Amino acid sequence: MIRKSAALLATAMLAGALTVGLFAAPAQAALRHIDGTVVSKNSDNRTFKLTTQNGNTVRIKVNSATKFERIAGFGALHKGMRIEVDAQTTSSGLLAKQVETRGGGGGGGNDDGGGDDHGGGGADDGPNHT
């Protein structure tokens, strides 16, 4: 009887832990869309700072997996450039998953002709749009 109760309790605890894990993972993977203007870049740390449309300044890190569209990579980012960033929140801050020039023009470099212009943002932007 004691073994059966212990086995049922262990099974219930495992099922609960798996359920929590299933719900926790998607929340961590959510991307945040940020429109802003580059105010500084730190090449040593591979980070840059943006001033967002609402006046906040955010620090964003890039890594080898960061995709650049219509920009010739991290080296081409410069102060005053208007960009759109899709970033993921990590334990060490925001990590850029994708960076592209804002409004679909001007950045030069890696234009793949895919026609993925987002425009300048608007009323239809999702809840994670800054």
CATH class call of the domain at 31-104 = Mainly Beta
Q: Categorize the overall geometry.
A: globular
CATH topology of the domain at 31-104: OB fold (Dihydrolipoamide Acetyltransferase, E2P)
Oligomer: single chain
The beta-strand count equals: 6
Mean of residue pLDDT values? 75
User: Sheet with the most strands?
Assistant: 5 strands, mixed, barrel
Strands in their spatial order, largest beta sheet: 1-2-3-6-5
Helix-strand pattern, N to C?
A: HEEEEEE
CA distance, first residue to last residue: 57 Å
Poorly predicted regions are 105-126
Radius of gyration: 21 Å
State the helicity in percent bands. Answer: 10-25%
Which structural class is indicated by helix and strand composition? alpha/beta
Task: Summarize the structure in words.
The protein has one helix at 2-29, and strands at 31-42, 47-52, 57-61, 67-69, 82-90, 93-101. The protein is α/β, with parallel strands linked by helices and 130 residues long. It has a domain at 31-104: Beta Barrel (OB fold (Dihydrolipoamide Acetyltransferase, E2P)), CATH 2.40.50.320. Strands 1-2-3-6-5 form a 5-stranded mixed barrel. It is globular and about 65 Å long. The N and C termini lie far apart (57 Å).
